[in-house]
Amino acid sequence: MTSSDWPAPAKLNLFLHVVGRRSDGYHLLQTVFQFLDHGDRLDFSPTTDGRVTLEPALPGVREADNLVLRAARRLQAVTGTGLGAHIRLHKRLPMGGGLGGGSSDAATTLVALNRLWSLGLPPVELERLGLELGADVPVFVRGLASWAEGVGERLTPVELPEPWYVVLAPACHVDTGAVFADPELTRDSKPLKISDFLSGRGGNDCEAVVARRYPAVAAALDWLRRHGDGRMTGTGACVFAPCGDEAAARALLAAAPLPGFAARGCNRSPLLARLAEEDRDA
Ligand SMILES: C[C@@](CO)(OP(=O)(O)O)[C@H](O)COP(=O)(O)OP(=O)(O)OC[C@H]1O[C@@H](n2ccc(N)nc2=O)[C@H](O)[C@@H]1O
Ligand SMILES: Nc1ncnc2c1ncn2[C@@H]1O[C@H](COP(=O)(O)OP(=O)(O)O)[C@@H](O)[C@H]1O
Reaction catalysed (predicted)? Predict the structure, then answer.
């Protein structure tokens, strides 16, 4: 039986400061994650043969690197389950866009297969497995808008306004590693408190480096700032701006000189609602 249409929502980094560096070279961040009611979708067909397969392949991503397969195989390895699954990924989020699509796909795979394979791993264990796959995976597993520190794994849920956003997707993939390696990156932002962010402070420290390396991102930010409070998410390439309501978001999107989408900000991930539905139907 196929369990269809599991959501893997996008995230926005409402601000992103680089406040230091770990001894292994990874950068210490402060950020706020909020979800969008727009993202990828996944269908899971559990099998008894222990094989995990995925369709379709993603252009430019080797099968063994696909975070969906890596998440499913990690879950098999830690639990020793003999079950398998055929997975279909409906990709809607641009890759390397700072919307966390790959991380969200991984989180949805962990959460859905934990349920469909009846593994019973607690959420905290799924978050731990998620962190092995990527810094953004734990917040997608937990599914609550959060203030995040460390490399993004120390999470504190926050209640935020849930505006409509316009998200624009410049036609480039940003190399996250190259942004963090850039000598011009600001790495010493003074740490903020949650209250500082809630009273309007905080920007995106990666924006200047990304705008210099990718003129398409600079142009998108310029355009958005002429029409609102434009900002980049994560290490880009996508940029976003909050809008007064859905109609304003759709009007701004229609006027934009590049592709994108309009979506509502959510403090609870659509994945949590889907999981609750599964529990109700059980
Ligand atoms: C910056 C953020 C903010 O949400 O998101 P994205 O823009 O990628 O969505 C994330 O922390 C991205 O985390 P994650 O998804 O694990 O990063 P990766 O693409 O694996 O990182 C590629 C490389 O960037 C460097 N890197 C990454 C994260 C970090 N906190 N410090 C680093 O120095 C490391 O050299 C790493 O090998
Ligand atoms: N299922 C997946 N979806 C998207 N990207 C994936 C996936 N699996 C692996 N990747 C790799 O992860 C990289 C980052 O993807 P993504 O999460 O979409 O962007 P970002 O981290 O900028 O938000 C991609 O460029 C791709 O090489």
Answer: 4-CDP-2-C-methyl-D-erythritol + ATP = 4-CDP-2-C-methyl-D-erythritol 2-phosphate + ADP + H(+)
* Residue 259: both structure tokens together: 């592709």
Q: Tell whether ipTM is more than 0.90.
A: yes
**Separation of 244 CA from ligand 2 center, angstroms?**
30
| 97 assigned to a ligand binding site | yes
The pLDDT, as a whole number, for residue 279 is 84
- Decide whether any atom of ligand 2 lies within 6 Å of the 108 Cβ: no
For residue 63, what is the DSSP state?
G
Same domain, 28 and 144: yes
**CA-nearest residue, atom 32 of ligand 1:** 26
- Please name the residues in contact with 109: beta carbons below 8 A apart, sequence gap of 6 or more: 42, 44, 67, 68, 71, 72, 75, 87
Active site residue 11: yes
| 50 annotated as a binding-site residue | no
Q: pLDDT category, 104, cuts 50, 70, 90?
A: very high
Using 50, 70 and 90 to split pLDDT, how confident is the model at 280?
Answer: confident
Please indicate, yes or no, whether residues 37 and 125 belong to a single structural domain of this protein: yes
* 118-128 pLDDT per residue, tens: 999 999 999 99
- Predicted local confidence at residue 34, as pLDDT: 98
Nearest ligand, CA of residue 179? 1
Phi, psi of 280 (to 5 degrees): -65, -40
Domain, as residue range, for 206:
164-266
Residues 12 and 81 in one domain: yes
CA nearest to 148, candidates 103, 83, 114: 103
| Residue 136 is among the residues annotated as catalytic for this protein | yes
My answer on whether 66 and 180 are in the same domain is no
